[in-house]
């Protein structure tokens, strides 16, 4: 049975349940195909295991000639469940907006795995979820793109509602036979042979409050997935620092010396590792506080005194100064504006 190795790019084993449903939907013997690629079918039921991503890529390569439909990956939208994505899938359900949810996917994508490393690209009127180039071969790349974007859009529709229509879809692949199935599925214009793979949403849709949001659950899930990513990425000092900050902010134990000791390294080593990631410890603390503060201020049940404590400030005046620096407004004015 396959497990996690830091030397390999790995994918959460339960993601395999999506592949199995997709293959079975097309009449294939999914367990037999899994075994051909060295994957024990029992593995995909264990949320604690991971499988080298190359095995899933080999599975797609093997299945492609067996399925006549070149756009079969789009049907993955009918094959996923939040539990297939681990803690990240459940955290998605409590996101306050699609923008916040997509940002969550970008920050914690490594928990699910794969080599896509998505990012958000934003303009005044648009928010785009962009898949970076994984340098996959010409067989696997379009299938993996279709599967990923179909699931992400279906995730958005689950939270927002079935009426959600992107502005457009950008795909780097050439138009396949019967390309009309793409705009029919996405409900918008689909551009082929572009320089990127992306779902483009109207900013107004991306920032609309979601009926499925739950601030308290979102905060719990944020800590859980940060800790999970930190365990997965022991060599990733940013993930480990962020997980520790989420836990320790209310205690006020935020010094650089404290964090270095907690991560079992010298202060100089911590500084060097953060510099390699183009940041500093001070900026990391500030960014974490800012992200939490903007989330907390939208919860009318939280007093400013509560937020001050949660963010590890000793006085409310420090919170006010920070808010003015982040937003140009006081916490009270920011809360009123957001309402």
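-> sequence recovered:
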């Amino acid at each position: 049975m396959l497990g996690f190795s830091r030397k390999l790019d790995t994918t959460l084993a339960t993601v395999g349940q999506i592949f199995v449903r997709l293959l079975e939907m097309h009449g294939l013997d999914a367990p037999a195909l899994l075994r051909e690629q060295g994957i024990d079918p029992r593995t995909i039921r264990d949320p604690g295991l991971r499988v080298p991503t190359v095995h899933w890529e080999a599975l797609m390569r093997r299945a492609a000639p067996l399925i006549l439909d070149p756009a079969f990956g789009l049907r993955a939208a009918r094959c996923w469940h939040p539990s297939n994505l681990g803690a990240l899938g459940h955290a998605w359900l409590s996101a306050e907006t699609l923008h916040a949810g997509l940002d969550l996917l970008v920050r914690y994508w490594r928990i699910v795995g794969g080599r896509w490393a998505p990012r958000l690209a934003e303009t005044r009127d648009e928010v785009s979820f962009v898949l970076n180039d994984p340098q996959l071969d010409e067989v696997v790349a379009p299938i993996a793109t279709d599967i990923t974007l179909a699931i992400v859009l279906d995730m958005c529709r689950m939270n927002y509602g079935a009426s959600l229509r992107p502005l457009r879809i950008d795909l780097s692949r050439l138009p396949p036979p019967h390309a009309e199935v793409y705009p029919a599925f996405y409900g918008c214009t689909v551009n082929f042979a572009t320089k990127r793979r992306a779902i483009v949403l109207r900013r107004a849709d991306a920032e609309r409050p979601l009926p499925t949001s739950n601030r308290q659950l979102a905060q719990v899930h944020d800590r859980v997935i940060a800790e999970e990513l930190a365990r997965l990425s022991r060599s990733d000092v940013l993930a480990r620092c962020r997980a520790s900050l989420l836990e320790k902010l209310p205690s006020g134990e935020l010094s650089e010396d404290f964090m270095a000791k907690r991560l079992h390294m010298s202060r100089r080593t911590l500084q060097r590792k953060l510099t390699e990631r183009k940041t500093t410890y001070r900026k990391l603390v500030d960014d974490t506080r800012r992200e939490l503060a903007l989330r907390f201020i939208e919860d009318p049940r939280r007093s400013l005194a509560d937020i001050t404590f949660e963010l590890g400030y000793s006085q409310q005046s420090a919170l006010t100064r920070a808010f003015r620096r982040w937003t140009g407004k006081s916490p009270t004015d920011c809360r009123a504006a957001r309402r």
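Strands lie at 10-12, 50-52, 119-122, 126-131, 168-170, 189-191, 197-202.
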